[in-house]
User: What shape does this take?
Amino acid sequence: MAQTFAHSAANLPRADAGRAPDIHRRVVYLMLFRLVLISLVLGMTLVLAVLSDIDLLTPASLALFAIIGGTYLLTIVYAVSLRRGADPIRLADIQVGMDLVITSLLIHFTGGAQSAYTFFFPLSIIGAATVRFRAGAVVVALTSFGLFVAISFLGWWQILPSLAGQRVLPYNLTGVELGRALALNSAAFAGVAVLAYNLGTQVQRTAASLQVERTAAADLIALHDDIVRSLSSGLVTVDERGNILTINAAACDILGIAAPASVGVPVDKLLPGVSANMRDMAPRASRSREDLTIKRPDGAELMLGLGISPLRNNEDEVIGRILNFQDLTELRVMEAQVRNAERLATIGTLAAGVAHEIRNPLASISGSIELLRQNPDVDDDERTLMSIINREIDRLNRLINDLLDYTNPRPRKLVELDLTTLAAETVHVVQQDRDFDMVTVELVAPDEVKLVADPEKLRQVIWNLVRNASEAVRDGDGTTVSVRVEADDGAARIVVQDDGRGIAAQDVARLFDPFFTTKASGSGLGLATCLSIVHEHGGTITATSHTIDDSVEGTRFDVRLPREQV
Assistant: This one.
């Protein structure tokens, strides 16, 4: 589990792995045991021989040296073979068989039935029981008994040759002494065989139980890993110092990081401020989801819903924290859009009612003023005042029309149109407006960009954006309004940008609110209507102002529209 949650399952064998790990371990232990035993027993024999001033160059002594050297050499061969992937069971069989041969030679050269090393046979029986269980104990016990009896009689009958310098000779026994040695050792073999048989039974049961437990644990870890890997939310575990222990794939995808590079690093490097939250919590306390805003390595800003709970070990001790989080960025944007839409709908309903109530009195006022202007007794000052009244009535009437367009838009009339042509016509009308003689309006567009939309509503969007940009340039220090039309990945884009005085950062977020305007005169409904039309067509519209030397200059509106309507 050092790199990801997936790594944990690899540490345990699957069900099809069999008994190989256990057999391998038991064979290694068997080799170590026999190596230590041979070193102690035969090594002490050599020490005693040296202390007893025994000639070590006799054939018997040399044979003892050969047995010791052969035992060490065979142990090295077994270890190398096991390391190179030899079958551990087959290797264990060979090892036990060779031990029986070495023990037989050792017993013959040290006195046959009266040898002090007959206990090596029972040790071989026990070793076989640990590897081959009950069957191994029985086979090796019978083999050991047969070899001991054969060596004892063949040596007593002097069929097997003795070596020069051999201090204890097999035939220096009476028949009674031989029988007694055979009986005692046979009884010892039988007792050890029974014990080894029971030992083999217990080892076999334990191995089977252990394999079942390992298989269950491996399956459980694999299931845990599959569950964690399949989570769509990010899951991170940290230790008590706040360093990351594990991290799942979903967390890496959300945070834009790589798992190996993140394990072991402080969690604040990935989730700034989390350590402070954890320190404020009681050791066993949990915290429900709370919003956390972070920046990915690529600069993208994310809003996460973060939950914190204690990480416990199998003894129910708290050893860290579990961090569970989801990317709520799009959800929070949608919630803001819904709240804004509800607010705008409420404002729109109110505005529609007010507009209808105002229109009728305005019509009466306008008619009355016209009648008064026709009176020959009205002087020039009075006519001037009447003209001002008519102008303001017209302005109020335009505001009412904007309100009605915003609150009660007519249904769409969808046709296939060329956005380039539509933009060019609208730009041409603005270029002919004498109010913008000092403004340069440029159009950059391909030959054609086809899409399905309502041409009159799109014309209203382009007109409002271009006119607002032209007014910003005229009233500021700018000179140019740029209109760009392009096709972009299945969508059509309209980008209107000016180099005017721009919009303050705190006002950009409110640009599409009804009745909000940064101009001295204006209804504040033009951009709100644009937003409504664009959303009606399934598109998006965004506004940005760039900053140069701590001053806001220039504004850009970006409209994206699908080229096909559902």
In short: The two ends are 48 Å apart (CA to CA). Residues 175-230 form the longest helix (56 residues). The mean pLDDT is 80.
